Amino acid sequence: MKGLNLLCCCVASLLLLSTAEEVEDASEPTKRDRSHLENTLKLNEEKPADDVSGVLQRLRKIYHSSIKPLEHSYRYNELRQHEITDGEITSKPMVLFLGPWSVGKSSMINYLLGLDNTPYQLYTGAEPTTSEFTVIMHGPKLKTIEGIVMAADSARSFSPLEKFGQNFLEKLIGIEVPHKLLERVTFVDTPGIIENRKQQERGYPFNDVCQWFIDRADLIFVVFDPTKLDVGLELEMLFRQLKGRESQIRIILNKADSLATQELMRVYGALFWSLAPLINVTEPPRVYVSSFWPHDYHPETHRDLFLKEEISLLEDLNQVIENRMENKIAFIRQHAIRVRIHALLVDRYLQTYKDKMTFFSDGELVFRDIVEDPDRYFIFKSILAKTNVSKFDLPNREAYKDFFGINPITSFKLLSQQCSYMGGCFLEKIEKAITRELPDLLGSIGLGKKPNVLSCDVTGCGETPKNRYRKP
Question: In this protein, which residues make up the domain named Dynamin-type G (predicted)?
């Protein structure tokens, strides 16, 4: 009888153990297959890294010898607040994550890097969890870097962030992770937008910091989820800052597998309705609909559709990584064009001031009249008439009121005087960089076209710019 009781106890224990294991297995979500992610981003390929050091060295040389002298001479940084550093020239492509709080930005980064349930994963939750700007970059081992250290390191591209103050640097954090994808790209996770919070409560200029990262991002993911589609003042301000960067924006409707088909269609339409007034483009923005986290898609949802959408987004990310050098050269060339336009405008303001000055004139009153009404003196129209500058590239006239408010016109020299026997003329050097050196450098990295054809047919430089203000 005792043996029978013992046998019954053993059987009961085994049944209880088996039931507990089944409950545990049922409670743990099924992990999603990551093979498509690794194949699309080419994480398993052991191909040799592209040797871009020579191209980067030439790019730095062109910038320092042909662009920076004119940039400093006419104080372009005080107009646009954007000075290019060596760290920015050599930096990897940057992918910026923006959007409301708790829509899955940090979870998406964890999923792309496979960091879930590892010591490296970013903290996630249903409440606002990310209060810092988090830069995830490559390193030999897991390492956390304080913002004040990142800003002090001139070798990195984040040293200009010091201008936003110590309160912001305390909200900036860097994380180095030994991951193959981070060898080719850097991710930036941002604090979620909370519409009922005033910007002043953050303790630092949130919109200005966002603008700094937006100006340097190669790809911008704006993430939403089905529960946060309303557009408030802070999100509206963010989309204003994204003007002109529409080609780099990817809108993501995350957590799509949490909805039935009919609900998903309604949410998709509501998202378009909310964003339509904020994006002034003729073509509707591309919205990627999927669920970016490691767990398998919810049963009875459009698994194939979500997978295709995810692969399409990953292909966009991979394209940005593959085109790193082309984008970098194009960015430097665009910067050079803006510097050249700024120098031509300052030169024209100065020439007009000198022409209007007489022995009895009050210099301050004369120049104030020119700045208040530049069209009366054909400042901007003369630039369009005498150079190949597009009217769409001209800066705002109002910006020059502030610029000359802190930079007296008499502190500048005419472009015709910015020449030396050994160094040549500043304007001619930057024009050579725009029309020949940078396009030739772009052609040298394998676009499959001759540099001399590329310089105008592809880059649209038109006729070679001439300095018609230079005295013979």
Answer: 89-330
Amino acid of residue 197: R
Q: 227-241, 418-432, 454-468: which range is least confident on average?
A: 454-468
**Domains of the chain from N-terminus onward:** 75-301 (3.40.50.300), 336-446 (no CATH)
CA angle 133, 134, 139 (to 5 degrees): 150
- Sorted by sequence, the CB contacts under 8 Å of residue 88 that are 6+ apart come out as 157, 216
User: Mean pLDDT, to the nearest integer, of 353-363?
Assistant: 88
How large is the angle between the packed helices 324-356 and 303-322, nearest 10 degrees?
60
Tokens of 410: 């008499």
Do the strands 186-189 and 94-98 form a parallel or antiparallel pair, or are they unpaired? parallel
Provide the token pair at 296: 């398998």
Across 180-194, 268-282, 409-423, least confident range: 268-282
Q: How big is the CA angle at 439 (ends 435 and 443), to the nearest 5 degrees? A: 155
DSSP summary character for residue 322: H
Nearest Cα neighbor of 325 from 84, 155, 89 is 89
> CA 318, CA 323: separation in Å to the nearest integer?
9
